[in-house]
Amino acid sequence: MWLHLATRPLRLKELQHALAVVLEEGQRGNIDLDKNEIPTQARLLDWCLGLVIVDEGTKTVRFVHYTLEEYFKSDNCSNEYFPDHYRLAAQICLTYLNFCELAVNCTTKYEMAKRLQDFYFLAYAARHWGQYAARLDCSDGVDRLAMRLLRVGSGCQYPHVALPVLYRALCNDVYSYYPDFDFKFLGIHAAASFGLKSCVNELGKDNIWDIEDSTGRTSLSWAAERGHEAVVRLLVEREDVDADSKDNDGRTPLSWAAERGHEAVVRLLIEREDVDADSKDSDGQTPLSWAAEAGREAIVRLLVEREDVAADSLDKHGQTPLSRAAEGGHEAVVRLLVEREDVDADPKDSDGRTPLSWAAEAGHEAVVWLLVEREDVDADSLDKHGQTPLSWAAARGHEAVVRLLIEREDVDADSKDSDGQTPLTLAAMHSREAVVRLLVERKDVDADSKDNDGRTPLSWAAIRGHEAVVRLLVEREDVDADSKDTNGRTPLSCAAMIGREAAVRLLVEREDVDADSKDKNGQTPLSWAAMRGHEAVVRLLLEREDVEADSKDKNGQTPLAWAAWGGHEAVVWLLVEREDVDTTPVACRGLIS
């Protein structure tokens, strides 16, 4: 039954604790964990007659074969083998959570961690009991157990231990189970988040219908986000509930429902006079903006048809609902918005980026196609940093989008941004081999263009150690394999400095590359590799006859001196063993003995 119902794979220890819960007809069951009731692994597997196994790697319990899991999922089998399974699961979870030791106030992170460590089923039961109870709306024996749990904390400073655990799951909190701030998340919030109407109704009688949690969210906000229409309807019909309340981030129940795509709840809320259908949160996003970002086409359609909703509103970043939809690749929403007369298909945000730019960066080919086909969209628009949609697509390696853009006459395939970097430079920098190959084959692309620092695509590929891209570029006649940047450093020098052995090997084997070139400070590739302690690169360079092992830079420092200063013992040994390296100056300064 548990494997059939579980929302995620159950670990062995979790399942052992769940099976230790004793439910007695007409009684409340065991009031604390009875360790004598915890089945051993062998006993557990024995009970299941070979139908389940324990994965020794993950220590999770699963069906012996996926076909068995599919068999149990069918409605007929589910009802036949597991009658009343939702009620039973809810009762087991709630009985576990109501154990006396867990019901004691939990005031510190240590206490929380200790309970989670000792009670293996706590995390799962706290997060999922309400999903099982919601199937029954807390009826037939479940409501009493639920109310015992939910009432803890209503009149106390600290809630039941299960509530912070649930809160963490609801908020996807990656930090601790128990926050540092004054934590407040009551039973009515939990009941609303699970859609337990009867529990919300009962708990609200303590005049906490509209009470806020630590983040300013009300029961209505939680119910709206989770799409529980019945609870939302119960709450908004009360005069003491603010249907348009804002949380600490300025978000309303409508905003949450719109983002999550709960059409029935959205429809219920926007029909009310006391709900602002176009309210802005602290980031300036409206319910429409959130729906567009999440790709909720039905919600977007509902909202844009209203006169009190601005279809082209700007948030604090200057982004519109269209920008958000394009960035997310939601083609249907983009199409719906650009076809409206009150929507600008080519707006620029605070960074100068357009919906096309966002779609290109994310690689959403269908959205890019939809936008560039429009006459009112500049396919080659520049943002504040001089980057075009093609630049962004090339940097991210979206070959299909790059191909689509460079085939257009209104797109400059070799445009430079504010750093002097072209789409090819960005593609080489980020090891986008397929995009590099696409671009260098074009006549209108300079395969050896220099950016503001004098670095070429080859230089960047060498710095990043992208062997395939380096190989592709150095084999071209229109690429200078030994070009110098503004500091006088060659691709080989850059690769040696960073320790890119494969790139160094490719470059030093070429006749058109000076393996011992000096930059503006007189440092050679060997000098840089020795300074950084790149033993493999130093060894590779020392094997060449055209590399001077004891060359001095403008400060009089040799590769040995740099290696000694850096404490790179292996490199020092490589150099001092050579007859052509003078160790005297370094020894005199006490760098080596």
Q: Can you describe this structure?
A:
- This protein is an all-alpha fold and 593 residues long.
- Helix content is 49%, strand content 2%.
- The chain contains 36 helices and three strands.
- It has helices at 2-5, 12-19, 41-47, 66-73, 75-81, 85-97, 100-103, 109-118, 122-133, 142-151, 162-171, 187-194, 197-203, 219-226, 229-236, 253-260, 263-270, 287-294, 297-304, 321-328, 331-338, 355-362, 365-372, 389-396, 399-406, 423-429, 433-440, 457-464, 467-474, 491-498, 501-508, 525-532, 535-542, 559-566, 569-576, 584-588, and strands at residues 10-11, 52-55, 60-63.
- A three-stranded antiparallel β-sheet has the order 1-3-2.
- A hairpin with a 4-residue loop joins strand 2 (52-55) and strand 3 (60-63).
- The longest helix has 13 residues, at 85-97.
What are the key terms here?
593 residues; mainly alpha; three-stranded antiparallel β-sheet; 36 helices
Helical percent range?
40-55%
Strand content: under 5%
Instruction: Please tell me what the overall shape is.
Output: globular
Q: In what order do the strands lie side by side in the largest sheet?
A: 1-3-2
Number of helix segments? 36
Query: Which structural class fits the helix and strand makeup?
Result: mainly alpha
Describe the structure concisely for a colleague.
This protein has 593 residues and is an all-alpha fold. 49% of the residues lie in helices and 2% in strands.
List the helices and strands and how they pair.
Elements: H1 2-5, E1 10-11, H2 12-19, H3 41-47, E2 52-55, E3 60-63, H4 66-73, H5 75-81, H6 85-97, H7 100-103, H8 109-118, H9 122-133, H10 142-151, H11 162-171, H12 187-194, H13 197-203, H14 219-226, H15 229-236, H16 253-260, H17 263-270, H18 287-294, H19 297-304, H20 321-328, H21 331-338, H22 355-362, H23 365-372, H24 389-396, H25 399-406, H26 423-429, H27 433-440, H28 457-464, H29 467-474, H30 491-498, H31 501-508, H32 525-532, H33 535-542, H34 559-566, H35 569-576, H36 584-588
Antiparallel strand pairs: 1-3, 2-3
